[in-house]
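Try it yourself: sequence plus heme C, in.
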Amino acid sequence: MKKTKHLFVSMLLMGMGLETAQADYTLNLVQGSTQLSHELYDLHMLILWICVFIGIAVFGTMFYSIFHHRKSKGHQAAQFHENTTVEIIWTIIPTLILVAMAIPATKAVIDLDHVQDSDMSIKVTGKQWYWEYEYLDSGLRFESHLDEASEKAHRVSSIDPRSVPNYLLNVDKPLVIPVKKKIRFLFTAGDVIHSWWVPDLGWKKDANPGFVNDAWTSIDKPGVYRGQCTELCGRDHGFMPIVVIAMEQDQYDAWVKSEIEKQAKGPDLDKHTRSDLLSKGESVYLRNCVACHQIDGKGISGWYPALRGSAKVTGDTSQLMGFIQAGTSKMPAFKKLKADELATLVTYLRNSPDLGNSVGDETQACQALSLDDLDDLYPDIDNAPQLCKEFGEVKPEKVVSEKKD
Ligand code: HEC
Ligand SMILES: [Cu+2]
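Structure, out:
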């Protein structure tokens, strides 16, 4: 009995907690901000009211009959087995209702599928545990990870998640799209099944490895729309939110232009202070490594080795950089890291009190490149090798591939 009481009280508290955590929690479907979401909302309301009407009619008739024709009133039951008229009526009326509901429902399904005549296409790839967006028309491509504040708050118990704005619903780089344009999304995944869901757009779509699903949207008004990966099976889908920013076409064009310039830019080869290197390195670590090696660098026993006190981490820097770029059969390769990211990352790995390492050195971006590679890798940076000569010993990284296959 005591146990039941406890359970009841804790459920009540949980319910109250939910109420405060989700201030904008409502009972009904959200109306959303797109043509499709409005259509789906209207369809939902129509079907709901039909159900309400049927419910009232059926239960009303039933309760009326039970009450007014009760035995104590001396009512005699009517005997009409195999009454053809009644059977025809109760077949035809529900059929008509179903057909009436099927017409708008079919129209909605067809509209959902109508991805043709789009103004632009965006490929969305779900990965463990972030989204990758590729604008097929402009060639823009980037990753969208959980924002740093949420990442830390959910991993460090001393940080109160309630102090983080949009906790677990914020990303470091949102998806930006123009308003009033028909945008076609292509969904796929790089590893496991993910599911892309922004309630305001009215639909959600699975992102499956080896398959491409598509969907479209056209957002009415500028704004920020948030969502989540809603795939259930797997460890960290709850930590790969989605943020869509819709803006006017001219603002969007300016954004694309600046992003493409940023994308084409090589690494930042300037010399940085130690604290700068460490704080940038922490961001790189949180984006790329923390999911496996954990915030304290202790890893997960039996799965992901500890980086705290690891000989590989505290040993030779160029080998460490080579290892990170090459990966192994169990760890992904991080070729995508630019020289400045790699340099700040290894400085962080080797020297961060958070990870419990203190080698006492630092690595500048120039030292994460080999002199010979510089020109090939970054033809757009004038005189890159000259820039890096200043650092004296530039360490060519040895890429020691430990890939077994
Ligand atoms: C998907 C999980 C995963 C991610 C993400 C990941 N690692 Fe690993 N890491 C592993 C696994 C598994 C191993 C063990 C590799 C093996 O034994 O083949 C490993 C091993 C290592 C080692 C060697 C440790 C030792 O003492 O042997 C280092 C160093 C390392 N990872 C650094 C990184 C860095 C830096 C990042 C981020 C850029 C990163 N890892 C991201 C899973 C991961
Ligand atoms: Cu996911």
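One thing you can check immediately is this: Residues 135 and 165 are 28 Å apart (CA to CA).
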